[in-house]
Every structure is written in structure tokens, then in C-alpha cells.
Specification:
The chain is 28% helix and 22% strand. The chain has 134 residues and is of the alpha+beta class. The chain has one domain (3-121): SMI1/KNR4-like (3-Layer(aba) Sandwich), CATH 3.40.1580. A seven-stranded antiparallel sheet has the order 1-2-3-4-5-6-7. A hairpin with a 2-residue loop joins strand 2 and strand 3. The longest helix is centred in the N-terminal third of the chain and has 11 residues, at 18-28. The protein starts with 8 loop residues before the first strand and ends in a 13-residue tail after the last helix.
Length: 134
């Protein structure tokens, strides 16, 4: 399971339904990366000490609040990492990005990993390569 690989896991939400995942893609008007859709199908919301993935029903509001479509078109805030936004790009695949709540633009983002699966498998490292554990 992808979600169970997240370090210092605290809580997993129940799996998202296909309808919830489809509703999220429709609300964002973006194709969800397949790995992210798979994560939601395992756990609709993940809490860990330094990593959080929002439940599918919370993602549209978070993206609207932070005006992601305006400042980073094609990106999706899917959670938080070290209290910074955790983002993916819409499309079939996506790298994992860490952003800045105060400047939600791609030039202010750092790539944390080439894929969600790879990033989680490596222990959700920060941009310096340290795993996400306390």
C-alpha cells in the first residue's frame, strides 16, 4: 500500500470511492495523476508527523483558498509537507513539489521527487534528502 509507506503515519482515512475521485477531478478541471488517484483509493486523507494528504472533498476548497489555478495553473495542492504546500501537476503522471504558501507560483516550488510512489518509497525526503521523520 502506498499510503502505509509514509513515515510516522498517524491516521488513514477510509478509501475514497471512484465517484469521489471523479468528482475531485471534475471540480479541479484537471486530470489527476494516476498515483494520486491510487493513494486516494487507499486512504481518503492521510496524517503523519510531517506529511499530510487532504481528503478528496477538501482539496477543491484548499486550491480555491490559495488561488492555485490563478498562480500555478495546472497544479494541485494535495496536502502539506513540513507545513508547506505539497503539490502535484495535473496529468497522468507528476513529480512531487513543495511550494510556499505566500508565493504559490511554480518558480517558488522545489521538486521533492520524480513521482509520488518514488517519493514515498524513499521516506518522503525534503529537498535536502532527509527522510520525513522526527
Amino acid at each position: 500500500m502506498l499510503a502505509r509507506g509514509i513515515p510516522d503515519l498517524l491516521d488513514l482515512g477510509p478509501p475514497a470511492t471512484a465517484a469521489q475521485i471523479d468528482a475531485l477531478a471534475a471540480a479541479l478541471q484537471l486530470e489527476l495523476p494516476a498515483e494520486y488517484a491510487a493513494l486516494l483509493a487507499e486512504a481518503n486523507g492521510v496524517s503523519a508527523n510531517l506529511v499530510q494528504f487532504y481528503a478528496a472533498e477538501d482539496v477543491p476548497e484548499r486550491n480555491e483558498t490559495y488561488e492555485v489555478a490563478e498562480y500555478a495553473p495546472g497544479y494541485i495542492v494535495v496536502g502539506a509537507f513540513h507545513d508547506a504546500p505539497l503539490l502535484l501537476r495535473g496529468g497522468p503522471t507528476s513529480p512531487v513539489f513543495e511550494g510556499d504558501w505566500g508565493a504559490m507560483t511554480p518558480d517558488c516550488m522545489d521538486v521533492l521527487g520524480p513521482s509520488l510512489t518514488g517519493w514515498i518509497a524513499r521516506g518522503c525526503p525534503d529537498r535536502s534528502g532527509r527522510a520525513a521523520t522526527r
